[in-house]
Design a protein that fits this description.
Blueprint (H helix, E strand, L loop, with lengths): L2 E5 L3 H12 L3 E5 L17 E2 L3 E2 L21 H6 L5 H10 L12 H12 L5 E2 L27 H10 L3 E3 L6 E5 L2 E7 L2 E4 L2 E4 L2 H11 L13 E7 L13 E4 L3 E5 L3 H7 L9 E8 L6 E2 L4 E2 L4 H20 L8 E2 L3 E2 L23 E3 L14 H21 L2
Parallel strand pairs: 1-2, 1-10, 2-6, 4-18, 10-19
Antiparallel strand pairs: 3-4, 5-12, 7-8, 8-9, 11-14, 11-17, 12-13, 13-14, 15-16
Helix pairs in contact: 1-5, 1-9, 3-9, 4-8
The protein binds flavin-adenine dinucleotide.
């Protein structure tokens, strides 16, 4: 019987661990962070200044605890062209997460104004697909802090199921080294503790996974993308948009998306002019950025290229026009600095892993956002889950065949 170690408990790790356990494979999952109630997840932001501010959380459940619950298919065609058909896995995941748009009761005035204004300008928005249970969700604008009602899917839900199926989950255990012998993986080290395994699946996210790969002698860490975003916003008095469901609608541009979005960074600048959070209406401009960054041993660098700057400018101009049409005072419109919340690309398929997500070291796999060949420019969780399910099935099939 194969003995598998999964490193990291976010989108990729929780899903692949659960999938393997469903097929009676022995799994131990090691997570660097600690276990936390969902509503305290904001205490575990572990952001990096890499040229843009890079947002991620280090805790059980990883960055899935602070998502906006957006659940859209990304890169499906791109993967298909590489011979990776995710259609069945997408369907399974969408069913398990009850993906759908929220009912009208969950659309606030600010979002509706933005949708109406976009339509007037010939830029029609669609409702965003979400993995949020509308019966549990009372719109409060706190998705990115950790849902106070646990109404949103996070990988904690898969981890609970995985544990019931026998997965041993060990938190507060940072994996520091991969061990190998003769081109085969043999296990991992967490500081001075050794764990042996037949297979190791790295799901530590696009910043930590390439560092672990390098500990096994594999070159990784180039071509980092982050889906750079800014939030553009201004004053529409008493709109109370900050309490609405974040990013509840979507406009797909060429290389960027626009979505209604509140950021406290806008308020901290506009309150100097006497306005408060209740007076701000905003939109996120998120781009499909170039993989121009790189993860080094001690530093991460991701500066935006001129191509990225062009997309940000184009999206911001449209966002400004929509907000003005929606009633925002144009003289108050400002933008946040550039940030990124979707790091990926640092162990890409075709470069660092093959189509089965295996590295050049037999039995060493990668299953997180690192394997994306290019930036999705849109929420990646659903796609990471689909890839992780596919890997779980692949390993289970292989294990049964060689049992
Ligand atoms: C504010 C915010 C909102 C977002 N909203 C959305 C959204 O609505 N929809 C969407 O699709 N995406 C969203 N995202 C992006 C999404 O959360 C990430 O793309 C996704 O979680 C990445 O999955 P992953 O498996 O690569 O990494 P993660 O989910 O970050 O998991 C990596 C895990 O590995 C652990 N780890 C790291 N190093 C080690 C180590 N050495 N040993 C052991 N464990 C380790 C970490 O603690 C973490 O638990 C959002 C991100 C942010 C920051």
């Amino acid at each position: 019987m194969k003995n598998v170690i999964v490193v990291g408990s976010g989108a990729g790790g929780a899903t692949v661990a659960r999938e393997l356990a469903k097929n009676r494979i022995k799994v131990t999952l090691l997570e660097k962070g600690c276990s936390t109630p969902v509503d305290k997840a904001h205490q575990y932001y572990d952001n990096l200044d890499v040229g843009v501010e890079l947002l991620k959380t280090t805790c059980l459940g990883g960055t899935t605890l602070v998502t906006a619950g957006n659940a859209v298919r990304t890169c499906q065609e791109e993967f298909k062209e590489m011979g990776i058909n995710l259609e069945n896995e997408f369907q399974e995941v969408e069913g398990e997460l009850n993906v759908g748009t929220l009912p009208d009761t969950h659309f606030g005035e600010g979002t509706l104004r933005i949708m109406e204004a976009s339509s007037v300008l010939g830029l029609p928005m669609e409702k965003m697909f979400k993995s949020i249970n509308p019966h549990e969700c009372i719109p409060c604008g706190m998705c990115a802090l950790g849902c106070p009602r646990n109404a949103k899917w996070s990988s904690l839900k898969y981890l609970e199921e995985a544990e019931k199926l026998g997965v041993k989950i060990i938190d507060n255990s940072q994996v520091t080294q991969i061990t190998t012998n003769n081109g085969h993986v043999t296990g991992v080290c967490s500081h001075d503790k050794k764990y042996s395994a037949d297979l190791v699946i790295l799901c530590a996210g696009a910043i930590e996974t390439p560092r672990l790969l390098r500990s096994a002698g594999i070159t990784a860490g180039k071509k980092l993308f982050v889906d750079t975003f800014v939030t553009v916003g201004g004053v529409l008095e008493d709109i109370n948009f900050y309490k609405e469901v974040s990013m509840n609608a979507l406009y797909k541009g060429d290389g960027f998306i626009l979505a209604p979005h509140y950021s406290g960074l806008l308020t901290s600048r506009l309150e100097k002019q006497g306005f408060s959070e209740s007076d701000i209406l905003g939109m996120m401009v998120k781009i499909k950025d170039e993989g121009s960054g790189c993860v080094g041993e001690d530093a991460v660098v991701k500066n935006n290229t001129s191509h990225d700057a062009g997309l940000l400018a184009e999206g911001s101009a449209l966002a400004g026009a929509i907000l003005t049409e929606a009633g925002v005072d144009p003289s108050t419109i400002i933008s946040t600095p550039a940030r990124g919340a979707h790091p990926g690309g640092t162990a890409a398929i075709g470069e660092v892993v093959d189509r089965n997500l295996e590295t050049e070291i037999r039995g060493l796999y990668v299953c997180d956002a690192s394997v994306f060949p290019s930036a999705p420019g849109a929420p990646p969780v659903l796609t990471i889950l689909a890839l992780a399910k596919r890997l779980g099935k692949h390993i289970s099939h292989y294990t049964k065949k060689h049992a």
